[in-house]
Amino acid sequence: MYDLASKCSVLLAKDFVHSAFTVILNEETRNSRSLYVEMNQTVITIYPRLKISKMYNFSFTEENCHVLDQSLENSTMNSRRGTNKIEVSDQKGVSVSCDFQYDLCTVTLAGWHHGVSAGLFGTNDNEAGNEWMMPNGSFTDNVKEFTQSWQVNKCSLVPKKEKPCPITAKQNICKVFFEEPHSLLR
């Protein structure tokens, strides 16, 4: 268990043998995130804060947007929706579930996906020694290096420190009125 310090989109898990699934955590604007899930030529992007999902099927070349209170129809994925929860799965044993009330998403893989995936979620082969494998096949025990290796876009790993804004004349007046020790308004 580790904190994800990255403000970048990162690959959580991908089937590198059969290309059965891909799960990416995307960094969106205003410090929000979305979950990109690809299965059976269908992509569903889940936006937990907005409580919506956006679906795209490669076979139809058209995009459908769905609010969670609607059913996800015409999909090769199965879906179930509760009041604050959405679950998508396929017949091959891949399931992604998001509970919006607790801001928690889970990825579950059936046994026949044993050892065919990699990403920040590890190799899924019950071997503790290779969980921190990077895309190039090498291993690390450094969280920053591990996280950076699974980035799917170009961005900085840690947000840049913002420079303080220059003090304006109005701010100086406020400082004199409210912060100076001799001010009656302090």
TrEMBL record:
It comes from the Eukaryota. The lineage of its organism: Eukaryota, Metazoa, Chordata, Craniata, Vertebrata. Coiled coil: none annotated. It comes from Hippolais icterina. It holds the Pfam family VWD. Residues 1-166 form the VWFD domain. This is APLP protein.
